[in-house]
């Protein structure tokens, strides 16, 4: 029997809910409407969380899920990074530092680093790894049952590859990873438009 990282927590007006993560679990990010900057995270057929950008062109986004809500914002030009906060907090919980040619480092305030790296050349597969290079969570862009009307949508399967993360880390990485994929897609589209003009 695989090891399970199980916690109980109180959320939504005192309702007790149970949550477990283990290696092999899969979730799916879906974009309900093409062009909208709103995404939903599903565990099976059950809605589990969401990611919403606050404006059409900005990088501020709010992620919600039963474990922890997050706020993400890309900042800086010469020294770009993403701030990661709990909503309403004035200090950062973590920072993400991108590398020039893709990928980057998620740095928690306790000093632990996690790498964010592309798995394939086309940058449709990404993953978080720990400081030893062991995979933690993988993101595969697209859906298994893609219809023609969904080709312009950003969707991703999320696969948990390690049971050695806390629920807080799971909540953060599941949301941040997809946020970074959405930024990468928006940046690639903007670069393509600039080159064609």
Please provide a written account of the structure:
The structure is a single chain. With about 200 residues, the chain is of the alpha+beta class. It has one domain: Porin (Beta Barrel). The chain has 1 helix and 14 strands, in the order ββββββββββββββα. It has one helix spanning about 165-195, and strands at about 5-10, 15-20, 25-30, 40-45, 45-55, 60-65, 70-75, 80-85, 95-100, 105-110, 115-120, 125-130, 135-140, 155-160. A 12-stranded antiparallel barrel has the order 3-4-5-6-7-8-9-10-11-12-13-14. The chain has a two-stranded antiparallel ribbon with strand order 1-2. A hairpin with a 7-residue loop joins strand 5 and strand 6. The longest helix is centred in the C-terminal third of the chain and has 30 residues, at about 165-195. The radius of gyration is 16 Å and the shape is globular. It starts with a strand and ends with a helix.
* Continuous helix count: 1
Q: Report strand %.
A: 35-45%
Task: Let me know the largest β-sheet.
Answer: 12 strands, antiparallel, barrel
Structural class: alpha+beta
Low-pLDDT windows of residues: 1-17
Shape: globular
Helix content: 10-25%
Distance between the ends: 57 Å
The spatial strand order of the largest sheet comes to 3-4-5-6-7-8-9-10-11-12-13-14
- CATH architecture annotation: Beta Barrel
User: Average pLDDT across residues?
Assistant: 86
Written as H for each helix and E for each strand, in order along the chain, the element string is EEEEEEEEEEEEEEH
């Amino acid at each position: 029997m695989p090891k399970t990282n199980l916690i109980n927590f109180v959320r939504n007006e005192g309702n007790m809910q149970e949550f477990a993560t283990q290696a092999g679990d899969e979730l799916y990010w879906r974009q309900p409407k093409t062009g909208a900057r709103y995404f939903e995270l599903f565990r099976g057929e059950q809605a589990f969380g969401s990611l919403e950008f606050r404006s059409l062109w900005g990088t501020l986004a709010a992620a919600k899920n039963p474990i922890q809500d997050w706020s993400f914002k890309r900042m800086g030009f010469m020294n770009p990074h993403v701030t990661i906060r709990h909503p309403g907090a004035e200090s950062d919980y973590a920072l993400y530092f991108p590398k020039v040619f893709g990928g980057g480092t998620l740095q928690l305030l306790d000093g632990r680093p996690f790498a964010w790296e592309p798995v394939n050349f086309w940058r449709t597969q990404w993953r978080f790894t720990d400081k030893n290079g062991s995979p933690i969570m993988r993101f595969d862009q697209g859906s298994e049952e893609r219809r023609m009307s969904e080709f312009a949508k950003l969707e991703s399967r999320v696969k948990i590859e390690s049971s050695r993360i806390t629920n807080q880390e799971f909540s953060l990485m599941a949301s941040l990873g997809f946020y970074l994929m959405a930024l990468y897609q928006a940046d690639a589209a903007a670069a393509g438009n600039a080159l064609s003009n």
